[in-house]
Amino acid sequence: ADVASFGYDLTVNGVQLKWGSNTEIDVSNYEVREVNSGWGDQNYLWKGFATRTNIVQKVASKTYYIKAIDSLGNYSSNASTVTVAIDKPSTPSGLSSVFSVNSSSMATITISWLASDSVFGIDYYLVSFGTTSVKVNTTEYQTQADWIGNKDFSITAVDKMGFSSVPTALS
């Protein structure tokens, strides 16, 4: 019989594919693939008897295929499919900047923003300006203000799976 109830959960560690137990008593394994071809060769993503498996997905949307295998090595007639859609981290918001001059007449600018959200958790923020990009683990960045005029900054949230938010800008 074909595999039923093929779905997924997003966890802090990635994607957990899950499905219902097959009703056939002689099912020996399940095979999960990224393409609906080549059943029986060694290019599968996962193969085993469990009814769930954890995977790491590095693209925002991906379709997976599954078939049951009986004790004689016969595959179910039709592959069941699920498309996993992962949202990017939320865009950093609430940007503000504070310009200050310390006692040695050196000027600094401190940029702060509200934390972004991601189902996988935020790994870092990428603060970019000119040809410079700096990874920070907080929602604040301070640098010397050693320029005249305006400088454009952008902040991008990057989650623990490597997905990036839409950058937000501050001048």
User: How would you sum up the major sheet?
Assistant: 4 strands, antiparallel
Q: What letter string, H or E per element, gives the SSE order?
A: EEEEEEEEEEEEEE
Fraction of residues in β-strands: over 45%
Q: Provide the gyration radius in Å.
A: 24 Å
User: Average pLDDT value?
Assistant: 90
Instruction: Specify the helix fraction band.
Output: under 10%
Structural class computed from helices and strand pairing:
mainly beta
* Shape, principal axes of CA atoms: rod-shaped
For this entry, give a set of tags.
171 residues, mainly beta, four-stranded antiparallel beta sheet
List the helices and strands and how they pair.
Elements: E1 7-11, E2 14-18, E3 27-33, E4 46-48, E5 52-55, E6 61-70, E7 80-85, E8 93-101, E9 107-114, E10 122-129, E11 132-136, E12 140-144, E13 153-159, E14 168-170
Antiparallel strand pairs: 1-2, 2-5, 3-4, 3-6, 6-7, 8-9, 9-12, 10-11, 10-13, 13-14
Description of the molecule:
This protein is mainly β. It has strands at 7-11, 14-18, 27-33, 46-48, 52-55, 61-70, 80-85, 93-101, 107-114, 122-129, 132-136, 140-144, 153-159, 168-170. It has a four-stranded antiparallel β-sheet, with no helix packed on it. Strands 11-10-13-14 form a four-stranded antiparallel β-sheet, with no helix packed on it. Strand 13 (153-159) and strand 14 (168-170) form a beta hairpin. The radius of gyration is 24 Å and the shape is rod-shaped.
